[in-house]
Amino acid sequence: MDSKKIEKAIELLLDGIGETKRKGLEKTPKRVAVLYEEIFSGVGKNAEHVLDSVEELKHDEMVLIKDIPVYSVCEHHLLPFFGKIHIAYIPKGNRIIGLGKILELVEILSKRPQLQERLTTEIADLIVKKLKPLGVGVVVEARHFCIEMRGKKQTETSTITSAVRGSFRKDSATRAEFFSLIREH
User: Does the active-site annotation cover 74?
Assistant: First the structure.
């Protein structure tokens, strides 16, 4: 990441909106550059390798991690979106993954300019590719500042995307169990 370019871009942005000389903005370009190193830390990282350490355990029932916090930046407007992700899979051939690895996968994929729809699909597809499970279900619920801050200001409007693969797609009972479990609190 090129911090100096980010600083120059923020200086140009501030100049473009007519805010260049105010005392409170003197350190803003540097602050933004430091912040961007964190919120875009997934850029250039290969998320697929996170799922390389498959473990063996005889377990053939659904594994669900729900309410995973997610923070990302919409690639269309460069404004944040945030919410939660629910991820489930049904192991096949005794192949499981550490729960922290799934959280790391979400972290890498969300820390880049992103679309919610792509994020949902990428998570599901990478789990299918690396674990070869019987099925995968991913649901992302998020609020987008590009919706909330402009136009009609639709505050607290959620966007929900899902991706279902394998048995989650083919078997209505499995799909229903997944959606029922993520609704329970």
Answer: yes
